Structure formats: C-alpha cells, structure tokens
Write the structure tokens for this entry.
Amino acid sequence: MMRPMMDTAIEVVDQWEPDARAVLAPGDCLETLRTMPDGSAKLIITSPPYNVGKAYEKQTELHRYIDALLPIIDELVRVLSPTGSLCWQVGNYVEDGEVFPLDIFFYPVFAARGLHLRNRVVWHFDHGLHASKRFSGRYETLLWFTKDKDYTFHLDPIRVPSKYPGKTNYKPGDKYGLPSGNPLGKNPSDFWKTLEEDWESLVWEIPNVKANHPEKTIHPCQFPIELVERCVLAMTDAEDWVLDPFAGVGSAVVAALRNGRRGIGCERDESYLHLATERVQALARGTMPYRPLGKLVHKPTGREKVAQVPKEWMVVGEASVAKTGALSAAAEARADATITSLQEELWPAQPLLFGELDTGR
C-alpha cells in the first residue's frame, strides 16, 4: 500500500492553468495545446493512438494516420521547453501481414521540426498477442527527442545496480586498484531488462499492463506508470510540467504527481478521464494500486500449475485426446510417469514448496 501524498485531495482542473498541479482536459488535445504558452512543458511523454484496429481506434492508411497527427506534433514542439524532452512511444503498424515499424516513420517527422534524437529506447515485455505466421511481437520503442543540445538529464536517480561492483581500475596510474564504477550504480542504457538476475542488462523490461498487473484498468493499452517515472526522474526537475496529449487513464499525470512534478493530460474518452481523476485522488489517499519502479518481474518457479506441461501435451498422437480432449487411462499413466521423471530431474534435492506436485487430479 502506498503512503498518502497529502492530507487533502488533489485539485484536478479541466483546462490549462499555470498555477495548477493536475490538469485533465476533456476533448480534442489540440484545443488544450493551443491554450498553453510556448515552452511550458518540460517533458512530453505519450503513446499516440496505435491505429491497429483496436476497439477504441479506427484503422486508416498509414500515411493518413501520420498526417492526422502532424498538427498535434506541431503544437507539441511549440509547447516543449527549450531544455525539455519529448518521448514518443510507438509499436508497429501491420497491414496484410507486413510489419511497418512506426518509429522509423516518425523519426523524420520530428527531425524535420528541429528535434534531436538522443535515444531509441527498446521497451520489452513478455505478454501480448501470439502470431502464427511471424514471430510474436514483444517490444515497442520510445523515441527520446530534445529541442536543443542543452537539455535536462539526471542520471543518478535512474541508475541501476552494477553487475560487478567490485571491479577495479587495471591501468597503471593514480586510480590503479580502486573501484572503477559508480557507488550509485551504472547507466541503464537504452535496452533495459529489469529481471531479478540481471536488472542492469539493458532491456527496459517493464511489464505491460495486463490482467494481473496491479495498475490494470479498463483501458486496453494502458501506459505503465513505471515507464513514465524513469523519464520523469531523468528529464525533469521538481515542479516542472509533464504533458501527455493522449492521456488514457492518466498514468503520465500520476507519475508526475508522485514525483513532485505537475501533470497535464488530454483525453477524448469520458470514461478514461473519469478513471484518471479517480487514480489521482487515490494517489493522494495512498490507495492507488502501483507497481514500484524497479520491482523485480515475477518469474514462475515451475511448480505452479499454470507453469507445468499439460498432460495432453505429454502424449503425441493419442487418438482420444484429438477426438475428445480427454486422456485414456494408459495415456494418463504415461503422463504421470513423465511428470514424476521431470520433477526428479529438475528438482532432485529440493522439497516442493506447495506439497506434492499438482498433476491435475
């Protein structure tokens, strides 16, 4: 459970106000963006509508999809602070089985407007749709642009543990034999993997928000707060404005408020906007479900029932399985023997944590 941020509720206003802390603006984001002063947002972070035929999106041709976003992008560049950052997180556009990586198409759009690409961050996750005629997609990209060569970037708050903290300088000189790393950790790089054994291995493996994620709401493609927080901590200072023009259920605004920044989000869908407001107030009360920054990704031990190989897969070509989905007595006995053998091979000296291995009976 989170600790309360404050004793009272957070005031959420529905239009740009320079002294506000939280803005959740309904309707077309262009209308709100046009009311914001030049250079007012220190960080713009968003995941634009994917245009991949989800229930809440209408699929259009790729070039029309990008063209429709150009007026919004022009306004985003205008309101971006001279020392600010714009993070544009996208996946792939798929048409007739052919994949078009959206970050490749968006890069020249931002470059033509004078922005400088600092990193192309890979966000890896383990869950998603399973493809049958190509490899299943398990990553998306985040393009990090700045408006100028002088920009805000704080490395220390987002450092990750070093793999070899005891490594020392080996070259002759004043520092020979002294630790060569940083006591706060190392740079996480642009390919970040937050797994238990290798948090620092450079893949941003922040779980996407699926059914068992603590932050899950009704939004089908919800932004993880953790993904936003890393950018907020690195690219902004206290009291800076964080903007998401496609706010959904408000993850970017929540991430900003959690870290002493101010947040503004725009959203057309009234139900998402209502949920975003509820999440902001839950944050103030300390009751908002939240996956902490850097928390280890769950790894099954192999003993959970859902992590075990089904008996039906143990017997290849069993006619009764193909016809009825049920195992014959002989096939079930062979499956039990196989499971027992696997158990003894994988965990020969380890007692089971949950009693006998569940064979489905």
